């Protein structure tokens, strides 16, 4: 059945043929109906009388002789319309003259005035009786809604009178206006990660340890200049060690490829196997052992033998070996690494002039093990690869690698031509291990100087000593002892702090974020004021570390001229237990990134910790060499 045409869908300008006839009720009709109702006429009689009054008088004729009411007129040729002598009134209601309209308007105004004028009580009672009589004699169909409305108005009037007569209670203050439903709810101003009062700031400035005494811009410029000198091979620059590797997006691992990975970190020695399924890395056979030299003195061959012992049971199930060596080492084009030194207070001797991969291959061959290709990479290029091979490129516009655990270091990707000391005029890119922890031209506080002087390598790796988990607990302890000597605590609290022998970075981080967490046993019974003061002293140490880390990231951003896209930021893949589990340092870094890079320079970075970054990146490096 075809759908009827909607009259509103007609084309603009199309002529319409229907005529809508609306009957009108005049005043005479209304009075006639009321009079007939009072006389007891039936509904049918009243409707018949009104219908007769609405229909104009017409000559009697047979139905056949009447023209159809809705028939369309026959088309006529266009002609000039005749001159009209009288106005056409499209209604059956009689047209009132101007005088009649004025009289009717005056009568209505008088009626409104009388309604507003209070009537004497006897007259009001007579009006009520008259209304009741009319309502009783009125037919059921007539005025039912009006009666209900009158009753409702009368009830409302009586309620208003009762309310006006009652004693008024004092008005309560107006409730606050509810927010617009789609507006963001009002929130308290967030408390910054580093918030230090004036009393503690005065103490810190005395020792050059206040966070605002470290200028992020100046440190960024100094780091950037050191990076550029290192790329040219000039003295005084950062090492800027080429890794001879370049990422190529997500790793497409062939079926059956499995890598045995060793992660030689600052505290732990980890071993695992890594393979890829549907483009995602899978870790198995994980073991964690102490790093040789982290707890007691060890020889280089102790490290090599431990690596061979950990790998030997896995060699029949893997196709390659990858070693993440988290210490200064110069990579070779064959993806081996020559050790340049041992840091992070690891006491390992006899490493001079040794190649990590070659020594391990020789030890495995001596044991009669199957010979497999070995790839050696630093932990920061490995962290970079863990991000670039697992994070979608449609989210990130460039990557960097940051390790912030026992030590601190960074990595970036540079054009081969930018690494001038290689002397290569070639296209392509290469990962560069900055060894930024070795930067020494950094402003030191009195606590930094004291810690540096007592370290295993005074004067070296000052940047790492300001920012890494090996040293931040020690710096916090030195600052707390100085605050106790300067009278910032109650005497009993000061005595306990002066006797504090060890404070780890993890405990200091937790206490600085929450003074009530109980991470420092010596302060568990201290007064609230003393705990808050201690937390602010610790915040100063971590606040300076956060500014130094941001300066390092900013120098990489300016070196690579990246991070310009607000909607696709540069992703800094992060490894290291300090940053990953931090409740103080990590928020402080985020706040400083926002204040310095985003607000000041309109550069956009996000720090994203990657689980098992060293193992995943080392496996990726092993597969990229194929």
Salient structural properties:
6-stranded mixed sheet; 626 residues; single chain; 5-stranded mixed sheet; elongated; alpha/beta; 15 strands
Describe the fold and architecture.
The protein is an alpha/beta fold. It has 19 helices and 15 strands. The strands form 4 sheets. It has a 6-stranded mixed β-sheet with strand order 1-13-12-11-14-15, with helices on both faces. A hairpin with a 3-residue loop joins strand 2 (259-264) and strand 3. Helix 1 (27-38) packs antiparallel against helix 2, helix 10 (379-388) crosses helix 19 and helix 13 (469-485) crosses helix 15 (505-513).
Summarize the structure.
Helices cover 41% and strands 13% of the residues. It has 19 helices and 15 strands.
Strand content: 5-15%
Helicity range? 40-55%
Low-confidence stretches: 4-22, 57-76, 78-82, 84-92, 174-187
Question: What is the β-strand count?
Answer: 15
Largest sheet, spatial ordering of strands: 1-13-12-11-14-15
Average pLDDT number: 82
Q: What gyration radius follows from the Cα positions, in whole Å? A: 46 Å
Measured distance between first and last alpha carbons? 71 Å
Helix run count: 19
Tell me about the biggest sheet?
A: 6 strands, mixed
Main structural class = alpha/beta
Question: What overall geometry do the principal axes of the alpha carbons give?
Answer: elongated
